[in-house]
Amino acid sequence: MRIVIAEDDPLLREGLALLLHAEGLDVVATTDNPADFLAAVDKYEPDTAVVDVRMPPTHTDEGIVAAVEARRRRPGLAVLVLSAYVEQAFATDLLGSGSARLGYLLKERVGRVAEFMEALNRVADGGTAIDPEVVAQLLTRTRADSGLERLSPREREVLALMAEGWGNGAIAERLVVTDGAVHKHIRSIFAKLQLAPDDSADRRVTAVLRYLEEARR
């Protein structure tokens, strides 16, 4: 895996590089601003990028904008975005560009090496990794008429794990239920959200994005 890091905090940037090197991964470039990050993406053609949400010059949304542009320039680029705290609008903006090979993680997870590497590998393998705290805050802020009131507590748990990027087998293991039970809950979620059974994979992404988008309203 070839990785580019975009992080303006020098300690975190170098710490990430050392961690990834120790895990046997190839960090081809580290940058501290959006322009250099995009130049590195063009030059090194990485498989994965780790990007801070807030970078110079304004420290607002430069990281998100750069991540979206990097994926436009290099389709299929896996991007794991890091943020100091939950920023709902940025999370939904990023996922709105397509959820495959994308992750949104709070920086505190970096210190939990196993969790961070699990999220990075999941994103690199084509999945989605959303920080559990991001999911929790977004779900609790949804409007009463969004369809959430129709979901049972267990269905909410299943949806939260779906939003974190877990597959049916992993969800079953975490909730200590059968794969069949998880499949039944997901079908019920789709029905209650009135998602047509055209394509199960698309419905799964649509269910997550609907929650994230309605959370920002």
From TrEMBL:
Q: State the Gene Ontology BP annotations.
A: phosphorelay signal transduction system; regulation of DNA-templated transcription
The protein's superkingdom reads Bacteria
What sequence ranges are listed for the domain Response regulatory? 2-122
Q: Name one Pfam family in it.
A: Response_reg
Query: Which keywords annotate this record?
Result: DNA-binding, Phosphoprotein, Transcription, Transcription regulation
Q: Start and end of every HTH luxR-type domain?
A: 144-215
SMART domains registered for this protein in UniProt = HTH_LUXR (SM00421), REC (SM00448)
**Any one GO molecular function term:** DNA binding
Any idea which residues bear 4-aspartylphosphate here? D52
Instruction: Extract the InterPro entries matched here.
Output: CheY-like_superfamily, NreC/VraR/RcsB-like_REC, Sig_transdc_resp-reg_C-effctor, Sig_transdc_resp-reg_receiver, Tscrpt_reg_LuxR_C, WalR-like, WH-like_DNA-bd_sf
The UniProt entry, under SUPFAM superfamilies, shows: C-terminal effector domain of the bipartite response regulators, CheY-like
Q: What is this protein called?
A: LuxR family two component transcriptional regulator
Tell me what organism the protein belongs to: Amycolatopsis echigonensis
